[in-house]
Amino acid sequence: MIMLEEKQLQGYNQKLLAFEKMEHKSQEVLDINPRGQLPSFKHGNIIVNESYGVCFYLESQFKNQGTKLIPDDTDQQALMYQRMFEGLTFYDKVLTVIYYEYFVPEGERHDSAVNRNKEALVTELKLWEGYLQKLGAGSYLAGPSFMLADVVVFPTVGYLFRFGLSAQRYPKLGEYYGLVKERPSVKASWPPHWVEDPKGDEDTLKDL
User: Which ranges carry the GST N-terminal domain (predicted)?
Assistant: First the structure.
């Protein structure tokens, strides 16, 4: 949705579905995406179901419209792709901690696994802190301008602070979060339940 806003494609049809109601496994979704996963995306008769794939598709189809999200500069482009795909590992480590009890059946849960997952996430957070520190104040993930890496990785950062990550403990990520959340595209696509309940579950990551 950030991508659609950045490419000035406002007015697109959208439907909010609830995981807890298993709406992502409805026949309506399965007809578009046999995996029963979200997001599912359709443009005319073209269907693309992976977030990264959708974003690449939109940048390719509308590259001369809205924000230019893949830079021409070779060094910046390389760093942007690097951060984009590192973002997949970042996202996975965040979800493993936040949704441990959702993913792991009660009889298979172990404190040692919880601690190991948290340690892995701390290591990952320190890595991203270092990336942002190296780029300097006011930077985005791959340089001075907002790029495709920011489109796909910012939602992960949003999750972190939604679940109580300390901006004092991770100041560069906190600064980045504060910078990007003010973009019109991010404001327009902010999850409605986050708007209704701005606090979220702030205890989950507060001690991380």
Answer: 1-66
